[in-house]
Amino acid sequence: MALGKGIASxxxxxxxRLLSAVDREQIDHGVQVVADAWLGGKQIITLGNGGSxxxxxHFINDWNKTIPMHTQRSFRGRSLxxxxxxxxxxxxxxxxxxxxxxxxxxxxxxxxxxxxxSGSGNSENVIRAVEYxxxxxxxxxxLCGYSGGKLKQAAQHVVWAEIDDMQLAxxxxxxxxxxxxxxxxxxx
Length: 188
What we know:
This protein is an alpha/beta fold. The protein has eight helices and five strands; from the N terminus they run ααβαβααβαβαβα.
């Protein structure tokens, strides 16, 4: 099956339009929220579903390795998506909607940062985690796409890719993680 030419131009043109339209002050603010937690010695806890779960995990991979390597300052990052057995235990014994809240109850301290990622902004387990974190003295940062959904309203701080395209929203969220890493590691 020949798909024809032009997918690269079509996709990249949509991504360029998104990147031209995003609120750069909102991005800078989101980077500062992560920086403040790091400099304050707080945990930075990431979570998300589907592709966003891999983005959450990738953030912690990059940040835990690269930032201390370049700054000689520890980075207390963890992701709630890296233990499939634990997630499935909470899903089985409580509910899938509580897989993140169950974990937060064991580790969350006041002032920690919970960075929640949801392309749609409406993942119930992500929303419950943000609400729990808000109620227990944490700082919350939501990365969302589409209309922002419930996450845009629930999170204290938001980085929003206003686009009705999951892949482009995920691309943008992924780039946010790289911006954080480069800024905190001193690359830019």
